[in-house]
C-alpha cells in the first residue's frame, strides 16, 4: 500500500507499507493533504522489516543504536535515517509522532508549527495558541457559524518567519463535552459509543503502562473499534464538521490570542510581550511532543542533528513572525463553564478584533 501527502508544497511525505493501520493512523494528522503525485518525498515512511542496522552502529543505554545517519530502537521497532536532505522512518507501529518529523523540515523553510487553533476573518489570520483542553475546538465550533471566518485548524497551524500562516486541519478530537457544541453529532453512532465507554476508560487506565496494551489495541483495530485513547475521545475528520468551502489555506497573520485557564474569578484579556509569546509557544510544543523528544535527543547524541539549534530555529521563526502581530492573553476562570467561556471569547473577538479588520 502506498499513499502520498503534500503539505502546502513545503513538505512531501510518502508512506509505503504492508500495514493498513499505519496509513489509517497517520491519516489522522495528514488526511487533508493527501495527494496522488508528489515527486521526491522529504519524508518516507516504510515498514521496520526493511531496515538493516549497520555493523558499526553504537549502543546507547542498550536501547538505542546510533550510526552515521540515524538511530534505531529494536525494542520499540523503529529506525530513523537522515541523509542527503531526506528522512526515512521505519516503523512497526505509529509510536513516532509525524508532526515532530515534519517540524524538522518546516524549519528548513523558515516555518514552524504552533499548537493552537487558527482562523482567518476577512482574509486576516488569527491564532489561538493554547495548552491542551483549553477550549480551542470549542471556539472553532462557535466561530464556524460566522460567514466571514475560514477554518485553518483546531490543534496545529504552520507559520513562516514573514508572518504567513498556513492551515493544518487534522482530525478533530471529540470528547463527550464537545457534543453540545456539535449538534450534528448528537444522535450519531459516535455519541452512543462514547456514552458506553466508561468501562473502557477504567480498563485502559489499568493496562496503559503494560506491553499488553498494544495487543489490545491491535485486537480493537481488527474489529474496527475506533477509540484511540481508551474511550476518552474520538477522531472525526475535520471535513465532517466544517463545510468544504470554509477551509482556509494561506493568509497573513495579524492577531494572536493565547488561551489560558486560571484560578481567578473574572474573564479578562491583556496584552503580552513578544518574548513571552515565543517562550510559551516553544514550551507548549515540547510538552505536546514529549513522548517523541527522546528521538531528537538520541539523534543529537550521535551527531545526526543539533537539537539546541533546532530549538533556536523555532524561536527565530516565532520572533520574526510575531514582529507585527498584536498579542493578547485571554484569562478564563477555571470555575466558568464552557459555554460562558466561549461567549466571553466571542464577545472580545467581535468588539476588539473583528471590528478593526
Q: How would you characterize this protein structure?
A:
The chain has helices at 20-30, 98-108, 136-143, 189-195, 198-207, 212-222, 274-288, 293-301, 307-321, 338-353; strands at residues 2-7, 11-16, 43-47, 58-60, 64-67, 70-73, 78-83, 86-91, 111-121, 124-129, 149-153, 156-160, 164-166, 172-174, 234-236, 250-262, 268-271, 326-333. The protein is of the alpha+beta class and 357 residues long. The protein has three domains: 2-96, no CATH class; 112-171 and 241-356, Phosphoenolpyruvate Carboxykinase, domain 3, CATH 3.90.228.20; 177-236, no CATH class. The protein has an eight-stranded mixed β-sheet. Strands 9-10-16-13-12 form a five-stranded mixed beta barrel, surrounded by four helices. α3 crosses α10. It is globular. The protein starts with a strand and ends with a helix. 32% of the residues are buried.
